[in-house]
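Narrative of accomplishments. A recurring question from our advisory board has been how the design workflow behaves on a single, concrete structure rather than in aggregate. To address it, we present the structure tokens for one chain from the evaluation set, followed by the sequence designed for it. No filtering or post-editing was applied between the two.
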């Protein structure tokens, strides 16, 4: 792998183990919007997509009013009401600290809203750690490359020097659409088969394995 200077991370399912919380909030929001409550499996399949795409996939017959209520109820429940624990995956803080010590630049490109991401960063004392943030409120939804294009432009970075790490096919497809290398991690929402079919540069199963891959690339 290349000797990268910029490491861009997805958040939910990649750095933070929030899959169960997302599923619970989606199911709650569907009930609020008087829509059929989706199964855990169906919810997991759309994690990583923007809310509009996720809603259209899960609820193709929903009205405009129902979709508006769904999005509002989801954000309200996830940010303020849902008490499901969402810890960082083991090894995340060590990886981030090691990259910082190696003078690497860090960014986040997530389908999460800005308020939710800011709350998470504060709760884990990660304020100011990432050099650039792009959320669902700032850019076109994945797999459109807009988030990554904005980050590359804001940081004046060549795409060949950037690596994106995510856990869903939407993440990897976004990286492919932006023509940057990617690592798919299997501990999140994405099925392994879907991740393989999305053609990541590398596939890993844990943060520890990710850290080893990054160490290898930086030593090449």
């Amino acid at each position: 792998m290349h000797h990268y200077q910029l490491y861009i991370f997805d958040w939910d399912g990649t750095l933070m183990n929030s899959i169960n919380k997302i599923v619970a909030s989606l199911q709650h929001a569907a009930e609020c919007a008087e829509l059929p409550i989706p199964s855990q499996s169906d919810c997991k399949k759309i994690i990583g997509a923007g809310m509009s795409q996720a809603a259209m996939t899960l609820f193709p017959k929903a009205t405009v009013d129902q979709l508006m209520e769904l999005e509002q109820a989801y954000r309200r429940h996830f940010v303020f009401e849902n008490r499901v624990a969402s810890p960082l995956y083991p090894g995340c803080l060590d990886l981030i600290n090691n990259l910082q010590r190696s003078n690497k630049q860090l960014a986040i490109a997530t389908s999460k809203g800005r308020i939710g991401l800011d709350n998470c960063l504060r709760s884990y004392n990660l304020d100011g750690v990432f050099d650039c943030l792009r959320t669902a409120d700032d850019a076109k939804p994945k797999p459109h490359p807009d988030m990554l294009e904005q980050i590359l432009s804001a940081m004046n970075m060549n795409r060949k020097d950037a690596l994106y790490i995510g856990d869903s096919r939407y993440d990897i497809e976004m990286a492919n659409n932006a023509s940057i290398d990617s690592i798919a991690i299997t501990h999140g929402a994405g099925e392994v088969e879907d991740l393989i079919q999305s053609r990541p540069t590398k596939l890993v199963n844990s943060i520890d394995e990710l850290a080893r891959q990054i160490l290898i690339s930086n030593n090449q």
